[in-house]
Amino acid sequence: MRYTGEKCPVCDKEFTADDDIVVCPECGTPHHRECYMIGNRCANEELHAKGEKWEKRTRKQSFRTCPSCHFPNKYTDTSCSRCGAELSDYTADSADNSTENGQQIRDPFSAHEAEELMNPIKFLGLDPEEDMGGATMKEVTDFVGTSAIYYIPKFKQMKENGVKPTFNLFSFFFPSFFFANRKMWGWAVLAAVLGVLFNLPENLLVGIGSLPKDIAAFVSNNKPAVEKFRDIMVVVDLGLRALSCFFANWLYYRFSMNSLRRFKKDHRTAADIKAAGGVKPINMVLVMLIKYGVIVVLYMGYEMITAMQDFSTL
Predict the structure, then answer these.
(1) Which of 12, 224, 248, 298 is most buried, with most CB under 10 Å away?
(2) Is residue 134 assigned to a domain?
(3) CB 189 within 8 A of CB 290
(4) How far apart are CA 197 and CA 241, in angstroms?
């Protein structure tokens, strides 16, 4: 249950999405954690004696809930922005007490602020409280941040259908940049290292004039074999790029869900989740430096081996 907009019975301040809230196990009254710890007891103990439960405040509805799909629309709308159903004959007193055929129904959007509900793009008409596998749709949307309109429908399909290949052109051409930009450092470093190794034969052939004499001589004397090895590496590289193209979105879905479950376990705030997710373009520069670092390490390793061989002949 969401408590945004409800008031703490101790300090009488409204809860926000970033507040640390504890709930009385007997009556369900929410408190700020620090407020509850003041007396280390529920502020509504009178409800316990009566056997009653805490109830949410009834708030006036500033939007119109569709009678067909329950999507929140602007109060001035005459038809549903999601399914097109007529709204002219439909009214409701509150977001939490809509009825249909005399029975109370749950409005999945009732816990969210009216300003947020007015944006039909943010959740693409999906329930922001839907469980995506350990985190809600809203939390996933906050974590993804940039391009959520692209990722959220794909994540929902993956949640319902399991591993599902999708197309990500950016991850085909620049796999290490894609993973680094989305803060998936394990995959970013792996893609960067493999990229350097797969391009090594081609770089040896192209830069043969700038290579140390012994390496240049080896490449020159074994050019057909090096060219064949280069062709094999090109095929392997294209194959792994294709896998990245089709499964990068699924890897990002798993990364997002694992991160969110860990954040929720650690009681991280909504602001922390937003800061941890999203994109960070500067990471693409860092992964480029990693690529150059791998090249330097390979070169220094070769120089060290050569020096050791020369030393052993003394």
Answers:
(1) 248
(2) no
(3) yes
(4) 14
The first and second tokens of residue 248, run together, are 């990068």
- Using only C-alpha atoms, the chain has a radius of gyration, in whole angstroms, of 29
Range of the domain at 198: 169-312
Query: Could you report the per-residue pLDDT of 261-308, keeping only the tens digit for each?
Result: 999 888 888 888 888 999 999 999 999 998 888 777 776 766 666 666
Report d(CA 157, CA 250) in Å as an integer. 10
Q: Does any domain span residue 281?
A: yes
Give domain status of residue 62, yes or no: no
Choose between 169 and 134: higher pLDDT: 169
Considering the domain boundaries, does residue 99 fall inside one? no
**In which band, very low, low, confident or very high, does the pLDDT at 125 lie, cut at 50, 70 and 90?**
low
Number of domains in the chain: 1
* Phi, psi dihedrals of residue 269, rounded to the nearest 5°: -80, 170
User: In the beta sheet, which residues pair with residue 21?
Assistant: 32
Q: Please answer whether residues 20 and 38 qualify as being in contact, where contact means their C-beta atoms are separated by less than 8 angstroms.
A: no
